[in-house]
Specification:
The protein is 74% helix and 1% strand. It has 563 residues and is mostly helical. Strands 1-2 form a two-stranded antiparallel sheet. The N terminus is likely disordered.
């Protein structure tokens, strides 16, 4: 027999849910998410499984054929070696800067994190100028040794690995440094009291405790290296060294869309596998707990006679990875021609005057600013709606939206570019700014979601409750209480999306056409076409803007974000 009260209760709950004025906003966000994220990514999977309209694995067979297997293997071993180098260097330097009395730690730390702020393809251009056949470092060294031709240049697989390790090394360094700073050192103190030496304490206690942070940084480095396009394109293609991202670029230029989608899915499998490995590493966090209730702040480990030699090594490493590339770009931008004698008569400002008067550069700058501004604004709007529904309003189904919105974080940008091409090119958007904007939305939505979620979680629920007790509705509570309090965090999130979007290359190079170039595409094409000095001058201008933006982020976030 039906009990009226048992049926009426859930019915009343459903009525209350749909009467909530926030629900239509969440439904609209779900529709947008389906169009922007789910539909394009699903099309990549479907297209990779179809040949002439029939379901088939033939494209995957081509993707792993002997001819195409080499890029897959190159992707895996270069990313793995990059991670290994970054883990070794990042762990040693994090320990030196956090746990010892190394002099000048603050300045060295800034130097060590600077490479991550420089776009990867800028780093590739700079290192090509340093270690190319006529490089500022290589040529004097060859002259000194009396060697006519260098046995090694930067345009090799090992050059690709070296530049990627320099660019992604800060991921490991920052992750391990944060773990060391939070670590309760009572176990180390107990070991020292028991007579263990510094090396033994480090090997048997410190490193095992921060091992998850080392591995997590290594996995992030691996994912970044797998998805990177700029470095292998600028340094590897000249030696006909292909990885998956450059092979997808080549397949699209043929054009061979089916092969590009199958290779894209291989890239997704590698990235998702790496993400799964990271989650597996972080499982059972209690086994690696490094924070206790009564934290002991240790005395810095005294390096003694090794203090200044260690400082020399750390400072030199920081100067090499941060200052040398920037100096190379700056010097090249003022030289009359690449390879000119390094003397005052060889310097000129004409390259800067040329790029400032070039219509293509002005157009690319306007396009980049428009795309980055629009992407940051739309991402923050959609991200705020989903985060608020999930973390504050706790509306049913909002957790699924949050998960779907975060999914693109594991998707390489090359795959995202192909996804939006499949989804929107036939709708007449091919080669337009709109299709580039849709790709940016898909790629950077996870940034805005995570930023706004963290900001909203810091607002105590009693403030909204006070608003509701005073008679304010849900929308007015959100507008007058939540939004003003969350505004600084949202502004920081907006800048965090704007900055990488304004210099983006990987998606833009696959989606642009005449008059829709971005600044990243323009610099890449200039360098690729041999206009080295002009590309360097434009890179310097963009770099100054990036560093200024970083200072703004640090000011807005009160030092919590940026470097």
């Amino acid at each position: 027999m039906t009990v009226p009260g048992q049926v009426a209760a859930p019915l009343a709950a459903r009525v209350r849910l749909w009467s909530d004025p926030r629900v239509p906003g969440v439904v609209a966000a779900a529709v947008l998410l389906a169009a922007i994220v789910v539909y394009p990514l699903a099309l990549v999977l479907v297209r990779s499984l179809k040949v002439d309209g029939a379901w088939s694995l033939a494209t995957y067979a081509r993707a792993v054929s002997p001819d195409n297997l080499r890029p897959l293997w190159n992707t895996i071993w270069t990313a793995a070696l990059t991670s290994l180098l970054a883990m070794v260097a990042g762990t040693i330097l994090a320990f030196l800067l956090v746990r010892t009395d190394l002099p000048g730690r603050r300045g060295i730390r800034t130097l060590l994190t600077l490479p991550y702020a420089i776009p990867p393809f800028f780093g590739a251009i700079a290192w090509a100028q340093l270690l190319g056949p006529q490089g500022y470092l290589l040529r004097p060294l060859l002259n000194l040794l009396g060697i006519a031709q260098a046995p090694w240049t930067i345009y090799t697989p090992s050059g690709v690995v070296a530049v990627m390790a320099i660019h992604f090394f800060p991921l490991v360094f920052l992750t391990v440094a944060a773990a060391l700073e939070r670590m309760d050192v009572s176990l180390e103190e107990a070991a020292r009291t028991s007579g263990a030496g510094t090396l033994r304490v480090m090997l048997h206690i410190t490193i095992p405790l921060v091992l998850p942070a080392i591995l997590a940084g290594g996995v992030l480095t691996f994912m970044g290296a797998v998805a990177n396009f700029g470095i292998p394109a600028l340094l590897g293609l000249r030696a006909r060294f292909f990885v998956l991202t450059t092979s997808i670029y080549a397949a699209l230029n043929l054009p061979d869309f089916s092969l590009a989608t199958a290779m894209s899915m291989l890239l997704v499998v590698i990235s998702v596998g790496a993400l799964g490995l990271q989650r597996w590493i972080q499982r059972g966090e209690g086994r690696f707990a490094v924070i206790a209730g009564k934290a002991i702040h240790p005395q810095p480990l005294r390096l003694g006679a090794w203090r200044w030699p260690a400082f020399a090594v750390a400072a030199t490493f920081g100067m090499v990875i941060a200052v040398l590339p920037i100096a190379a770009l700056l010097l090249t931008s003022f030289l009359r021609y690449y390879g000119a004698p390094l003397e005052l008569a060889s310097l000129t400002t004409r390259h800067y005057r040329y790029i400032l008067g070039l219509e293509q550069v002005r157009r690319a700058a306007i396009n980049s600013v428009f795309l980055a501004s629009a992407a940051a604004t739309l991402c923050m709007g959609l991200g705020t709606a989903i985060s608020y529904a999930h973390t504050r309003a706790r509306i049913s189904g909002s957790g699924v939206l949050d998960a779907i919105g975060t999914l693109p974080y594991a998707i390489p940008h090359t795959v995202i570019a192909i996804a939006v091409l499949l989804a929107w090119a036939r709708a007449g958007l091919y080669g337009t700014l709109t299709i580039i904007l849709l790709a940016y939305l898909l790629a950077y939505l996870p940034f805005s979601l995570r930023t706004t979620s963290a900001t909203l979680q810091q607002i105590h629920g009693s403030l909204e409750e006070a608003g509701r007790v005073s008679g304010a509705g849900p929308l007015r509570t959100f507008r007058d209480i939540v939004l003003p309090l969350a505004k600084p965090g949202m502004l920081a999130g907006w800048i965090l999306v704007f900055m990488p979007a304004s210099r983006e290359l990987t998606m833009s190079i696959l989606l642009f056409s005449l008059r829709t170039e971005t600044i990243g595409v323009t610099i890449f094409n200039m360098q690729d076409a041999g206009y080295t000095q002009i590309a360097a001058a434009l890179s310097v201008v963009v770099l100054v803007a990036i560093l200024a933006g970083n200072l703004l982020v640090r000011r807005v976030s009160r030092g919590q974000l940026g470097f």
